[in-house]
Design a protein that fits this description.
Blueprint: H1 2-27, H2 34-37, E1 44-45, H3 56-62, H4 68-78, E2 82-83, H5 84-172, H6 175-179, E3 187-189, E4 195-199, H7 200-210, E5 216-221, E6 224-234, E7 237-247, E8 252-259, E9 262-264, H8 267-278
Parallel strand pairs: 3-8
Antiparallel strand pairs: 1-2, 3-4, 5-6, 6-7, 7-8, 8-9
Helix pairs in contact: 4-5
Length: about 290
């Protein structure tokens, strides 16, 4: 009985040793088929169609079809088997490879996603920067245009002020100012009770500037003032311009105006003719009046 047990133990040890050698052999390149090495009494198992839920084609796409996974794929394709213990060991190795490949793929996808997000944010930020730069350029252009316009308006206003100052100086130096030195300067009116801003001497001076003459004939009779410009340089020749005013407490009312042989007989006609006489020499919103 003792001899029998010893023989049995020796037989089991020999089988385990043979199994280890056989497993090393099956993992090595060029090893003989398992069915040729495994004793017929050891239970066999075929490689599964899927490992960790993946087909062998999917494992290959994942990049894990090498080592144990490649070995199992070859056995599966050739319809060969392994012992259950051997199959379990090879499956564990293949699953480890698959997990590593999935982790690598997940990391690659994560890096790719982060890179895509970073690139998208960079593009969006660039677009924002470009929009801000465009807005700044447009604002700067508007500022420059406004500054140029202000400069032009200031230059035009200064020029207008210079023109007015020069005109006022010419009006003040007109000969009629000396001729009427003793006459009180008041606004003139074409209609009774409706005085204008233009004064008597300013009006007559503007007429003189427009049509230089050869002297004045000034007559004062009571409240009536008659002013004749002799030989004024009119378009039709050197002819007289005669005007007559009646003094009121606050203004001088024009009652007569004759230019050469043209006589303005109504207040409205005298108003229009007064404008025509002064529009060129004293332009003030279309005329002195």
């Amino acid at each position: 009985m003792r001899m029998s047990l010893t023989a049995v133990f020796s037989s089991h040890r020999a089988r385990a040793r043979d199994a280890r050698v056989w497993l090393l052999c099956l993992l090595a390149a060029g090893c003989a088929p398992i069915s040729d090495l495994t004793p017929p009494w050891v239970p066999q198992a075929a490689p599964p169609d899927r490992i960790s839920g993946l087909t062998y084609a999917a494992i290959d796409e994942l990049g894990a079809l090498h080592g144990p996974c490649a070995y199992l794929a070859d056995l599966h394709a050739r319809a060969l088997t392994l012992t259950e213990a051997e199959l379990s060991a090879v499956l564990d190795g293949c699953k480890t490879q698959i997990m590593a490949a999935e982790a690598e793929e997940a990391e690659r996808l994560r890096v790719a996603e982060e890179q895509a997000i970073a690139e998208m944010m960079a593009r969006e930020w660039q677009a924002v920067e470009q929009a801000r730069e465009q807005e700044w350029r447009e604002a700067e252009q508007r500022r420059q245009e406004a500054e140029l316009l202000r400069a032009q308006l200031a230059a035009a206003e200064e020029k207008e002020q210079q023109r007015r100052a020069a005109l006022l100086e010419r009006i003040g130096q007109a000969a009629v100012q000396r001729e009427l030195a003793g006459v009180q300067d008041k606004p003139i009116a074409h209609n009774l009770g409706q005085p204008l801003k233009t004064t008597l001497k300013t009006f007559l001076a503007c007429v003189e500037l427009a049509y230089p003459n050869q002297g004045y004939q000034v007559t004062r009779s009571g409240r009536t003032l008659t002013v004749v410009m002799r030989e004024a340089e009119l378009p039709r020749g050197d002819l007289a311009i005669e005007s007559r005013f009646v003094e009121n407490p606050e203004y001088w009312r024009m009652t007569y105006l004759r230019v050469a042989d043209i006589e303005a007989r109504t207040d409205a006609d005298r108003f229009v003719l007064s404008q025509n006489l002064t529009a060129e020499s004293c332009p003030q919103e279309g005329g002195l009046f």
